């Protein structure tokens, strides 16, 4: 069971790691935000920063997996509705920043943790979308030769929408329709 204190530590650490990345966050940063001594964090996470990062990353990826699967189920069987639901879900939750995780965060932790987190990221984020696209191809609704690439592009587009919203002063959910049109129709006439 999670104690309220451990849950607070998890929530603050998850937010800071998501905002800044593994390397840029220190246990001192987390302790200061919580208003506790840095040494107190070792009570909940004896393995220190890496254990805390792995714990909150697993938790976040598992939550995204459940959310994505539910969004796909609730959207019905049409690809466009499923893509819209997936993208709406992704932009309405804290961004994952999968590229940063794969290129900077995971290489900074032990090889064992990096492998486990990479596998979990694929299972949680890529595979639900990949399966959705493969099912649409089987129904004749999509002509995609590489479902993994298509799933990664959907994820990247959702993360790009969040960044674009800051550039355009529009809410991310307002941009989903436009991004979806580009994904489905492409840039060509």
UniProtKB/TrEMBL annotation:
PANTHER family: HTH-TYPE TRANSCRIPTIONAL REGULATOR BETI, HTH-TYPE TRANSCRIPTIONAL REGULATOR RUTR
One Pfam entry name: TetR_N
Keywords: DNA-binding, Transcription, Transcription regulation
DNA-binding as UniProt keyword: yes
InterPro entries for this protein: Homeodomain-like_sf, HTH-type_TetR-like_transc_reg, HTH_TetR, Tet_transcr_reg_TetR-rel_C_sf, TetR_C_Proteobacteria
Organism of provenance: Thermalbibacter longus
Annotated ranges, domain HTH tetR-type: 3-63
Any one GO molecular-function label of the UniProt entry: DNA-binding transcription factor activity
DNA-binding region: 26-45
Gene3D superfamilies reported in the protein's UniProt record: Homeodomain-like (1.10.10.60), Tetracycline Repressor, domain 2 (1.10.357.10)
Protein name: TetR/AcrR family transcriptional regulator
